[in-house]
Specification:
With 231 residues, this protein is mostly helical. The protein has one domain: MetI-like fold (Orthogonal Bundle). The chain contains 11 helices and no strands. The radius of gyration is 21 Å and the shape is globular.
Length: 231
């Protein structure tokens, strides 16, 4: 039988029966990536706004680092986080290696440059007259930044979607620092790798299809919110 057809049947069976192992993998995937993108947004949005509005020595160098980080190979991130958290590393005493926390740290490092870069582009794309108008009305710094962020909210949604998409589908870094432990650090991507290595292609295809469906649903939600706000 065609492996793809078998994968479709397996995916339907897993979803119809609410397979416990599948649900555990989904929960871990969403918990890790959800927390990572939340932290990435908390760090990346203020930094993107700061770089977009302020001019200071070294700014171009920082923007270059951000642009480089947007294309940083996840496996490189995983290697450095692994070396930091390993027992012989500077943070080894925290015992975070092969835990969901280590996976969150790695995904934050991957997602944050994307959030910063998209936010920076959105802030720089705002009309200069809008900034002057806000200042002329006597807005406080808090009101000034808040208004600009509100005006760039569609860009921030794009940053959220880009960052989340990059980490929910990432495998190299989470495999290195998470260890793919069943029930603890196994996520959709690492489960797909495991099933493929074991020759269980129908299960690997099923998990891949479910991951694609999950990504489609999440991005549809982001798009719906974005277009609704635009309208």
């Amino acid at each position: 039988m065609n492996p793809i057809w078998e994968g479709l049947q397996e995916a339907f069976r897993l979803l119809a029966n609410l397979d416990p192992e599948l649900l555990r993998i989904l929960v871990v995937s969403l918990e890790v990536s959800g927390l990572a993108i939340a932290v990435g947004m908390l760090i990346g949005v203020p930094l993107g706004v700061f770089l977009g509005l302020r001019h200071f020595p070294g700014r171009n160098f920082l923007i270059t680092l951000v642009n480089t980080g947007m294309g940083l190979p996840p496996v490189v991130v995983g290697l450095f986080i692994f070396l930091l958290l390993a027992r012989s590393g500077p943070l080894g005493d925290l015992n975070l290696l092969y835990t969901p926390a280590a996976m969150v740290i790695a995904q934050v490092v991957i997602a944050t440059p994307l959030v910063v870069g998209v936010t920076l582009a959105g802030i720089q794309g705002l009309d200069e007259n809008l900034r002057l108008q806000i200042l002329s009305l006597g807005a406080s710094p808090f009101q000034y930044y808040g208004k600009l962020i509100r005006e760039a909210r569609l860009t921030l949604l794009a940053a959220l979607a880009a960052g989340f998409g990059s980490i929910i589908s990432e495998v190299g870094a989470v495999m290195m620092v998470g260890g793919n432990i069943a029930g603890q650090t196994r996520v959709m991507t690492t489960a797909i790798v495991l099933e493929t290595r074991q020759g269980n292609f129908s299960m690997a295809i099923a998990l891949s299809l479910i991951l694609l469906l999950l990504a489609l649903l999440i991005n549809w939600l982001f798009t719906w919110v974005q277009q609704r706000k635009s309208a």
